[in-house]
Amino acid sequence: MYSWLVFIHAVSAMVSIGPFFVLIPMLGRLKTADGDLLHSYLDSFRFVVRLSKHAGHVLVASGLLLMWLGSWPWTTPWIFGTFVVLFASLLFMARAFSPTIRKLREPEHDRQALLRKLSRSLYLYLFVLFVMLWLMIMKPMIW
């Protein structure tokens, strides 16, 4: 049972992070896309954000089960650090992508400024995800 949970946890981590890399080349294409093509790209962004969110639910649930079954205490530095970064990323994700994507659908907004914000958000969120991944793989004893 434990090894299956580890597998589910690892796959959900890949599904949470992987699709964001598809969005990187899309950022450049969003600069010139119009009409249906623009909406198609924005729908892809929205889909990746939702997919990551739902995979994150599986990731957290499987992680909590692994903690419980493996008798890992909350005070373990890499677990505590992961949860701190996780909660910060949840607050960030709630404000970083959906409002910007909604504004990009409206023609009266400055597209270049919104694309810069979307790009910054994407790279910052990837960095945060990699910090969590590093904490879980390397398991540093910070204190």
TrEMBL record:
TM segment ranges: 6-27, 78-101, 122-142
Protein keywords: Membrane, Transmembrane, Transmembrane helix
Protein name: DUF2269 family protein
Organism: Paenibacillus oleatilyticus
